[in-house]
Design goal:
- The protein is built from 25 helices and 19 strands.
- It is an alpha/beta fold.
- It has 3 domains: 222 residues, Rhopdopsin 7-helix transmembrane proteins (Up-down Bundle), CATH 1.20.1070.10; 151 residues, Reverse transcriptase/Diguanylate cyclase domain (Alpha-Beta Plaits, 2-Layer Sandwich); 246 residues, EAL domain (TIM Barrel), CATH 3.20.20.
- A hairpin with a 2-residue loop joins β6 and β7.
- The structure holds ligand C2E and calcium ion (2 copies).
- One calcium ion binds next to β15.
Amino acid sequence: MEELYNLSFALAAAAMFICLANICFISVQDRMGKTQNRLFVLLLITVAVNGASNTISAFFSPYRQVSENAVLYSEIARYFYFVFHTALAPLFFFYVSHVCGAVFRSSQKKRYIIYFVVFAITETMAIINPLTKWVYYIDADLQFRRNWGEMLIYLAAAFYLAMSLRYLTSSWSSLTVKRRTGILMFASFSIAGIIIQLIFSKVKVELFAEAIGLTGVMMIVENEDDRLDSETGLYNRKAFIMDLGSYIIHQVHLHALCLRINTPEIITRKRGADSMELVEKKVSEFLETVHEKYNIYRIGRRTFVLLVFEGKNSNVSGLAEKINERFKKPWQLVDNFVLLSSSIIIADIPEQVKSLNEALYMFDYAKTSGENKSIIAGDDLELILRDSAVEKSIAHGLAEGLFEVYYQPIYLNDGKTLYGAEALVRLHDDKMGMLFPDEFIPVAESIGLIDAVDDHVLLDVCRTINEEKLYDNKIGVISINLSVLQFMKPGFVERINGMVEESGVDKKLISFEVTESVSASSYELMNDAINELKQDGFRFAMDDYGTGYSNMKALAAMNLDCIKIDKSILWEAEKSEIGKILLENNIRMIHQLKKKILVEGVETKAQIDLLQSLGVDYLQGFYFSKPVPKAEFLKMLV
Ligand code: C2E
Ligand code: CA
Ligand code: CA
């Protein structure tokens, strides 16, 4: 019997010392910034006090029968044990909910009130027990007796444990293996301790097991070395992914403020690569002065994200303003000063950004540098998100065959004879409906999927030309839009030739439309490609003539069959005398260059009359037809 007392005494003391050592360690490491850290320290304190109480009880219990003081001291110790031990399970629960990111935000407030009320009731019962004896009492023989209150406290503890496990499982995917293991380790150590103590009621091993479990949590969960960015000491990208991921799972409302430093190339070129590191260090030091360090992340080179939670001090626009102001002033790097440009994106989560992927896309790729605005929020954000959605839609559309080529008929200048058509691509999206090329072509170019889209269009055009009806109707040409980027790619000519030859289509039935918005240096490249393809039999047209800087010399030098005058030139001619002069002279000049003329955007009979009088060759526009699906176009061929 005495040996068991000694063992319990030793275990309780050991639990206390382990916790005290952990508390020392944490305070030396200065890891008390977040609520999570503070809750953990509270857990340690609780187990330490429990350990101390049990040590004292164990120390005095052999003397209870002989000394009244021994009874008094051990009863005081027991009282403290109950008061603190009652708090252990709720504290663990609150700790877990922080680790999982399920921190109490408006949506969860009601539920948290219940958690607090249960905690308050059980804790009050423990505190007032000397008066009520609801939890336990000491009988006339100085024996310890349990009462119904203790049962209630145990039930509450089981409830908190179950809730902790619930949070753990619901955030499972957003927790790192380390975090999961750390928390499960604590839970299983505690449960093992409780079971051993239930079976061998004299072996008070529970606290010791909990102390060891907490040490594990400290080393695994509270140790954040792998969450820290070594250069700035802020949280790194991995921590951001983990934290935001769990906030999103738990529908925590917050604002994410993303700060991007925009002028690094200039700095690195002028002042060496080290300067950029120094710049980021300076900026992160500044950020720490305007926001809590533990809510700042460095998610990439020159990109920081500050998380601002809804609640008492959540003035995110004020914060953005403050940062913006700072960037108007120079930054000191060793012995010189630099001005940095910055852009800020503010996103409301989950109202505007619903998933981690969306957030990462926005903060990593958003093209903010071209914008005049240095703070992007609200509706402007929608555009960025739309780009992201379009990007996904393109990839999905290619995989699922959701691109469809529409055809807009082209008429001869009599306005009656169908001559050909322009292929205009569309993308059907399940959610956004039909997407138009003006929106998705630039996106497809930027993500390198334009080739696949172009191939789809070319193949569809070849198939259309192969339709019998087209031959019977002696259709002159189907035109295809080519983005200038395509010309710059090696192997472009071979690819086009290969595809068309395989389909067996007569190449002169295909005309490629190019725009004049190329820089002078790329004219040559483009000309080479055009000449090569023209030798093979393809035709070429200049699209949107009159919208760019119409470079006459270059235009004359280019080996084109047709010039498509932009609709704005036609519409202007109807409105003003100058506009009319411009249209007339352009037409005369193009004819002198011996090229055919097509005018787009023909919407009225009056326009047709005007264009006929000016001797335009081809007409295209809504007057005849909007772009229509292939089947409808074929119907026009009678
Ligand atoms: P674009 O080559 O100038 O095509 C003509 C655009 O004007 C088409 O818009 C057409 O629907 C529209 N349009 C035609 N007639 C009229 C009219 O009478 N009134 C008015 N208000 N509009 C008219 P869409 O189909 O949205 O195409 C937009 C642009 O997307 C095209 O401009 C072209 O540059 C590009 N695009 C279309 N398909 C492709 C493609 O397959 N590949 C590439 N790279 N670009 C394409
Ligand atoms: Ca076109
Ligand atoms: Ca055009």
